[in-house]
Amino acid sequence: MKPTLLILAAGMGTRYGGLKQIDPIGPNGEIIIDYSIYDAINAGFGKLVFVIRHCFEGAFKEKICPRRFASQTEAAGDNLDFGELSRAVEAAYAYQEVDTCVDGFELPKDRDKPWGTGHAILVAGDVIHEPFAVINADDYYGPGAFKTIAGFLTTKDLSCNDYAMVGYTLKDTLSEYGSVSRGVCRCDERMFLKGVVECKKIEKTSTGARYFEDDGTEHALTGNEIVSRNMWGFQPSIFHHLKVRFRRFLEERCDERNSELFIPTVVDEFVEEEKATVKVLRANDKCFGVTYRKDAADAAKCIRLLIDQGLYPENLWDQS
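^ that's the sequence the OP posted. Answer follows.
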């Protein structure tokens, strides 16, 4: 069974100032998701699931579909045609809204923002029934990362609670233009995850990096820490765990205006409670993301360099 790729694309791009997941960075209008899809198909993934929001559904599908694919249908389980790269890749959409998967829980009337990356994964539970990887739509991970996580997900004799994460070095993931959020990891000598803390407001310093807690408390980082960029490998068992954890989150924190259930926080609890083991995998690809508007120009330069090095064709989908 081929694994599925779950692409978290429901963010509204507040710091970027628009839908960064559909802004072009390639020479022929390719968006950053295109390169992830290309690498994932080459790595052996057989299905794509996009998590989006209804309010930009039309704009997203217009960008991701007609120019790139010979045929496009919208229902879960239909196929996208990727030409010579793959004749049939199953695709589906899941929608992350503030009231998705709340199971009748009474929500604050003034809340219009969904509930974070843990919630984003949970909403895809009805369309994923096989091992799957998770990525952010606005991050570039590289072909090696997709091959590495696909290799894990297709390993024989994995248990239902054997998970994985592709880890990156913190200093290689920071933006030049502002702070970012990362899951900072602790690993044992066998590279199994012992704990991960979602740190917000991480920024570069002359000696490495630092981050700030919500109360303003500052913490220094070396820059050499292993961090998560939300490239996870999960079994379908994660959906049951997330459903239970999300309900508790709503009961405890739904009245906090900007509260979010981050997937690193959830995984940290699973590891602590011995509900899952998480293997930390490493990939040597250059990684970059688009958090701020100025990041897009840097991302385009990186893609240009990778094309010049022969890693990608000039026109990603038109290879005639």
